[in-house]
Design brief:
The structure is a homodimer. Chain A is an alpha/beta fold. Chain A has 15 helices and eleven strands. Chain A is about 40% helix and about 10% strand. A nine-stranded mixed sheet of chain A has the order 1-2-6-5-4-3-7-8-9, with helices on both faces. A two-stranded antiparallel ribbon of chain A has the order 10-11. The interface between A and B is large, with 54 and 54 residues.
């Protein structure tokens, strides 16, 4: 078997196999494209599903397909290529979902970003019917990830996907769109400018050969690639029955972290995300730094928890806090009145006021004590 | 020891002990109020902390205090009373937090709601600086809980607390405010109408005796009571350094469920809640039903997960879905064109179109096939 023979065989099989088809993809992964191609042509009495493919195999001109792709600037990446993203091989061991699964036979790719550079990439996906809020957060996460050198992978759909790609572009980092149709197709049509740009500076990828249209089950197969290519999936907005949840499910099957961005509980596009977090199927994240922390190797990108300001009073013993609480802000009060308010003995309070004065927290005046500037916050 | 003696002793100790004080409350819980009262008066060489209380004990007229309270419609509930909420005894075994802890010496109560009816109650707490969104959700949760018969306990503070009380009142259920000051005090002043109403139809409760002002550490002690009285705590909005997180911490120490309502990640008042959920210290909830499910006994209040509509096509085998995806919506197409689009053999597609027609999903026309009404959603 030559490398060319394998590529031609896989290109032909790619033309005749539905993305993520469970009868073909595992066999091609196990035996290779050339072997499967030969067996389909030579063997008799094949099961019906293979007979149907075998019958159409002679009519496929794989060399012509690869040639046409090359003229359009599209390459066909297969597992024997250096560019093959080896994390996709995890799909061989993952349980199918909605009758789709397996390692793709090959990937049709347009654009300068190499697929073998996506090991540390992050999927940012979500609802087509996104809100302004969701778009903004997806864009922010895309920008922070890309800015930190993590490529952003998404599906080029309206809403969250496009916002994530745009954020990554704004963050100056690579971004890759995985499509359910052929990479020569523009879908959705209104994403033409974005897809053209991605093909120039990022990459547009599909398991489906040229010319294929984006059918619903191809989206399901496509979602598994988004999850498998990346080392973590963030769902920004997803209603209860959203395709983004299918991607989350795939990420979970592949043991990649699933993250969800919450939103108002009154917002339907956040409903599916809340459900994931609630069930423990996704970790709540609120920004790109937290995403990087989740997917980064231990210690890398570690985020400090946001904290309130530490106030000087917080370090005091409880009794002194109690006294401090009883000291007036403006009009000075005598120690016995402070003791009464604090519910403590006057003798104790006297010495504590002295210590608090030393710490710069209270001021001594003619007629008693009041808080110093430092203790007023 | 008579019941009166115990009540008088505890009333006196309540006057001289800071709420949640760690030196006194455990001893009073262990030995009882009358015994501790006697020991403080009789024993010599007491540790300084007790000596200070002992020195002031003779000046307290507990009978007069109880009498004054009674005239104001305020009762002093102690552990030997039938009304004592026994769930508070869990505080004896809970680790202290910020130097506060222990079972309270007694509770000063104003209002018709009995404390022994709070076993199934729910705490709804949160930020003073609440948003319109937070207020609305807290009110909704309060109303759903109260409507289902679960009393709502909160702290009467501005924002979330007051919204929760108001929601519970609107839901027609009992609601109880636990204060950091004496129950005869109105704090915050602007809550006068609400607190007066709660004292008439619900209950206003405090560990601090009459006249006490609401110092900061009394809020910390108060928060433990809100967590301990209820069988679950919901945080609606809480910034990163909010007192509501202290209540959540107490609920966790007491093995009561902690629940958090998410909000926009751009909203600071949701920051502390998101942090809790993210760390796994709170379960995300989006409405009152989910709260009831969390705190209810197994099987009670069980919530159906929200689901998208199930569509007729979802039950089809994958290949038939594939064919269906290839059938045009309006202009009929011949079977061979559908087969080409679907990437399937024409023979297969023909029989599948027949089955889909039988299922009412496609229509046969003169020049081919198109989707039936049923399959267009």
């Amino acid at each position: 078997m030559t490398d060319d023979e394998e590529r031609l065989a896989r290109a032909a099989l790619s033309r005749l196999t539905e993305p993520g088809d469970l009868s073909m993809t595992p066999l091609v992964h196990e035996f290779g494209g050339a072997v499967m191609h030969r067996r389909l042509l030579e063997e008799r009495g094949l099961p019906r599903i293979f007979a149907s493919i075998a019958a159409r195999l002679p009519s496929v001109d794989a060399a012509k397909e690869l040639d046409r792709a090359a003229r359009l600037g599209i390459r066909f990446v297969i597992p024997t290529d250096v560019e093959w993203p080896s994390q996709l091989d995890d799909l061989a061991g993952a349980e199918p979902l909605q009758n789709r699964g397996g390692v793709p036979i090959g990937l049709w790719v347009k654009g300068p970003v190499r697929l073998d550079g996506l090991a540390g990439s992050i999927a940012v996906v979500g609802s087509r019917a996104a809100t302004t809020y969701g778009d903004r957060i997806a864009g922010d996460i895309g920008a922070v990830a890309a800015g930190a050198g993590a490529p952003v992978v998404s599906g080029a759909a309206f809403g969250i996907d496009q916002a994530a790609h745009r954020g990554a572009l704004a963050g100056g980092g690579p971004t890759v769109a995985v499509l359910a149709c052929g990479v020569d197709r523009i879908y959705p049509k209104a994403a033409e400018v974005l897809l053209t740009h991605l093909a120039e500076v990022g990459a547009v990828v599909s398991e489906a050969p040229l010319g294929c249209s984006p059918h619903r089950i191809r989206f399901l197969a496509r979602n598994r690639l988004i999850a498998a290519l990346t080392c973590g999936t963030v769902i920004v907005e997803a209603a209860v029955r959203s395709g983004a949840l299918n991607t989350a499910n795939w990420a979970d099957r592949l043991n990649r972290p699933v993250m969800g961005v919450p939103g108002p509980v009154t917002s339907a596009p956040s409903g599916g995300v809340h459900q994931l977090i609630r069930k423990g199927a996704a970790t709540l994240v609120t920004n790109g730094q937290e995403v990087l922390e989740m997917v980064g190797s231990a210690g890398e990108h570690l985020v400090d928890d946001p904290r309130g300001p530490v106030r000087s009073r917080d370090h005091l013993p409880v009794k002194e806090q109690q006294v401090l609480d009883a000291v007036p802000v403006s009009t000075p009060a005598p120690a016995d009145s402070i003791a009464r308010v604090a519910g403590l003995a006057i003798a104790e309070v006297g010495s504590m006021l002295g210590r608090l004065e030393g710490a710069g927290l209270v001021e001594r005046h003619d007629h008693g004590w009041r808080l110093a500037e430092l203790a007023r916050t």
